[in-house]
Amino acid sequence: MNDEIRLAFAHPSARAEATGDTSAPRDRISLRDYVVEVEIGAFQSERGATQRVRFNIVVEVRPDPGPVDDDVDRILSYDAITEAIAAELSSERLNLLETLAERIAEHILAEPLAMRVFVRIEKLDRGPGALGVEIVRSRAGEGPRLAQAAPDDDGAPTPVVVYLSNAAIAAPDLPLWLDRLQARGQPVVLCVGPADVAAPQSQGAMAQRRIDLLAIEQNAWVLAGRDARCIVTGTRTEIDWAMKHDQMTVWAPSKIVLDAVDGPSASPRDALALALWFAGQVDAARMVVIGTEAPDGADFPVQVLRPEDAADAL
Q: Are 293 and 302 in contact (CB under 8 A)?
């Protein structure tokens, strides 16, 4: 077996050693064969169930110029690696190992002493062997690394989440309400429930959940057809971008709900409770409900309006 093939399947520590700069060698710390049960994967069979995922990570660190003096604060702790894994696994449900590897690498490289990181992640339960990815990332200027978004000096936007009943969606004053909401200068995210028609029924709970979420999304497109300002968005990235650029959006819930690590307890059939959960996820400043009753359990102000009163109250 030649060296290239041997190194391709070797532990990341061997790969780090083989590709290291001999003129300026670095110290390395590693995590070997760290196995976690996690829900991850793009296939339907991987949803609603956990599988074993193995992590092997090597971090090259910049040696401290002074003596370590047996002081844990002067080194990069092994806990930084396991905490990076835990943080990224808990942030949201992911479909791809590639995404998880990138995020873990970025998390670790935020540590002042970390200079280069090798991340290998493998699924252990998808077949007779281990299926995985390995990436290498370095600090800026020392090799490929994910581009980081520029910090937002104004902080994250705090939107107004507006829940519209079907009567409100159909109301002739809808464009006027949107005018009034936009004039306030806060980002606006609109939420809806399903249309007033029965959704198809399935024997399977997971299948029915998807059907009910899609029913909400169909109605989101009905709202989008009523006013060109209502842009349907389904990912947190799209929503965050829209809020920062003063674009009004309509929430399509499937991806965010299905990918949430700590998902909503509310059924998609309770669309108002689902909208309340979403408002908490985006740190809404307040919620406006037009055409139905107030939701239970809100941790922020909720304004409830009848459609005939909304034009004057917004």
A: no
